[in-house]
Amino acid sequence: MAEVIWGLATSHVPSIGAAMDNHKTGDPYWKPLFDGYAPAREWMAGHKPDVAVVVYNDHANAVGLDLVPTFGIGTAEAYDVADEGWGQRPVPRVTGAPELSAHLVRELMDDSFDIATFNQLDVDHGLTVPLSVYCPDPGDAWPCAVVPVLVNVIQYPQPTAARCFALGQGLGRAIRSFPQDIKVAVFGTGGMSHQLAGARAGLINTEFDRMFLQAIETEPAKLAALTREDYIRQAGTEGIELIMWLVMRGALSENIRRIHDTYHVPASNTAAALALFEDLGTVSR
Amino acid sequence: MAEVIWGLATSHVPSIGAAMDNHKTGDPYWKPLFDGYAPAREWMAGHKPDVAVVVYNDHANAVGLDLVPTFGIGTAEAYDVADEGWGQRPVPRVTGAPELSAHLVRELMDDSFDIATFNQLDVDHGLTVPLSVYCPDPGDAWPCAVVPVLVNVIQYPQPTAARCFALGQGLGRAIRSFPQDIKVAVFGTGGMSHQLAGARAGLINTEFDRMFLQAIETEPAKLAALTREDYIRQAGTEGIELIMWLVMRGALSENIRRIHDTYHVPASNTAAALALFEDLGTVSR
Amino acid sequence: MTTAKDNYVLDLENNRRGYALNRMFGSFRHAENRDEFAADEAAYCDHYGLTSEQKKVVLQRDWIGMLDLGASIFYSFKLATMDRKSMQYLGGVFTGMTAEQFAEALQAGGRKFG
Amino acid sequence: MTTAKDNYVLDLENNRRGYALNRMFGSFRHAENRDEFAADEAAYCDHYGLTSEQKKVVLQRDWIGMLDLGASIFYSFKLATMDRKSMQYLGGVFTGMTAEQFAEALQAGGRKFG
Ligand SMILES: [Fe+3]
Ligand SMILES: [Fe+3]
């Protein structure tokens, strides 16, 4: 059976990808952020998954406003990298895991989640930047296959934090019931606090972020109890992306160990963070 | 507060619409079907809703195979009639009820349903034929506004019958919590048994249909317990559309009264039926 | 001519296999695409990236072959509509009958199984 | 110039109000559309059915006005990208600062509220 070996929470700010693509990770602006990633990257490089399930949102690149699904799963054999207006990122095409995707869709549908399927999908920075955080130098191919899991965070009403946590729990069950002996990592992406538009643009709420960064390990139910309005008020209109961390957290077992975390302000307009958890499994081993 | 005044289950076969559009309802082929509708139409004409919530599926006209949502709700001010390859049906444009739509989306999302929003939608025979069954001569405008509720029945895995019934129950709660004194009718469309493709094309299962037509009133939980495979085997690959009747049934209270039903074979390749239920409300009146 | 399977279910795997085919059929929603297809069917199939097998069954109107290669009946029916073929005609093809025989079977109460 | 609201939330009502505007911005995903817009901005706005108010705020690059008329920042940012304006520049516009001042405020730990 498949197992979840680790979960990574990470911001997916486009400029983090651009800093890597343009070889600016050693610049004074970016060095502290990337230095903060180093221990996590080293550990992950020693614990390679076969498939990464990446929970993210599209940013007006593949999902329009005509039809906005709440939760979606990519089911394709491969995903092209989106052109977000400045050309494709110079990173490899993303290879899918269609058998696992089909299994997850079926299991989640039977578990009362109403999943949209993305049978064709161009993936934007929301998915590719986290892959780059995991693997900065993929060469010709990413080191694992990917199942994209999409969450609407742009249109109100977004799914509640509680529903995202529940989806994660269902996702974890579904992964663990996949009848192939593969190792799966789950990525929860977006956040931390940021707001792009309006008079509160530039908002950073370090206290909230620090609380969240701790509680995502120890008290996820507390975070799941926050309303949409709580997230928007405290973390900003785009900080609500943090609900996607709860999907990742829900997919892990109760028995996890924090490998590393880092927090840095700013990455462009955003408080950027990373938190990596090893999943020790539901039984001792 | 809004109230649900009745629920209509009806097939949505395109040729039923075409028979009306082409004034063939008196032809020997069609007369028995339309005669069967008459008592229901008469009763409904005396019990006009302000809004019809129409549960239906699109048939390759507005929803492609790139992105397939499980449950969707139309949120627009108006919906154009789709051109399905032989021109638009000569029926009025459909007026939306965007405030009710937004309320339903919000309430259902908070009730753990993962709803896709159709902010732009052309409605096909799945929606317009049931409106014509209700109101054969609309003139320049349909007699009520409409909230489309879309269910994926074309791509496997479809939502389970149990999930559809649960969605209906959530939908009923959400309608009844809408803070305007409006009357709402709920339409469950599609079915009954039929299969368009494969060696079993032309399948009609009268025993199953008769059982379903009774149990939708008295034992919906029994129908909700049937699997996708049960529906496909017994009612045909397209007969699985019957799960949409369960959404309508779930939205009604426990206290309903059968006004009329009719069953006729064939309408083109389909067993066609209608069943009309008055909702007497959750309290006696 | 191959024999049809009992049931065709558009699962995610068939959706992938039939992707180009169904996308092409879906394009027939627009009249200008129907005209373009009619003007040069083979070129239109190539433009939509059909496999040579898929192209062949389209050009030959092998309706069972289309299903076997991932077509959804709701999509391939758009091609039938352009050809002015009815769903009864297709029903006949799938079951080895003429359109008239198939319509009569429905008229007589439909086909029974199991 | 109007003052920005504290927060802009793209709810279903704003989605409806801003529909033409966001659809137009979304079209800038494709380079040929960007070129067409650049060649005649007003005509392009008309083609996408913008209201006269929406057209005015686009042509004047009234970034706050766009939000007030239903634009999503993820969509109007595509226009900013064409203009080679950064998200920091827009942040400055929304908060009455220059792009540099806004970037400095972030560099200093971000803006605090409540
Ligand atoms: Fe994001
Ligand atoms: Fe149908």
From TrEMBL, chains A, B:
Q: Which InterPro entries match?
A: Xdiol_dOase_suB
Outline the extent of the Extradiol ring-cleavage dioxygenase class III enzyme subunit B domain: 9-271
Molecular functions per Gene Ontology:
protocatechuate 4,5-dioxygenase activity
Pfam families (UniProt xref) = LigB (PF02900)
Domain of life of the organism in this record? Bacteria
For this protein, the Enzyme Commission number is 1.13.11.8
Instruction: Provide this UniProt record's keywords sorted from A to Z.
Output: Oxidoreductase
rRNA processing in keyword set: no
Coiled-coil intervals, chain numbering: none
Q: Which SUPFAM superfamilies match?
A: LigB-like
Q: Which residues cross the membrane?
A: none
The cross-references to NCBIfam families, in alphabetical order and at most eight, read: PRK13364.1, PRK13365.1, PRK13366.1
Record protein name field: Protocatechuate 4,5-dioxygenase beta chain
Automatic annotation (TrEMBL), chains C, D:
Q: What is the lineage of its organism?
A: Bacteria, Bacillati, Actinomycetota, Actinomycetes, Pseudonocardiales
The Extradiol ring-cleavage dioxygenase LigAB LigA subunit domain is annotated at: 21-106
Q: Which UniProt keywords apply?
A: Oxidoreductase
Q: Does the keyword Transmembrane helix apply?
A: no
Classification via Gene3D superfamilies: Dioxygenase LigAB, LigA subunit (1.10.700.10)
- Highest taxon of source: Bacteria
Q: What is its EC number?
A: 1.13.11.8
| A Pfam family of this chain | LigA
* Record has Membrane as a keyword: no
> GO molecular-function annotation terms?
protocatechuate 4,5-dioxygenase activity
Q: Which SUPFAM superfamilies match?
A: LigA subunit of an aromatic-ring-opening dioxygenase LigAB
User: What name has this protein been given in UniProt?
Assistant: Protocatechuate 4,5-dioxygenase alpha chain
Q: Which organism does this record belong to? A: Kibdelosporangium banguiense
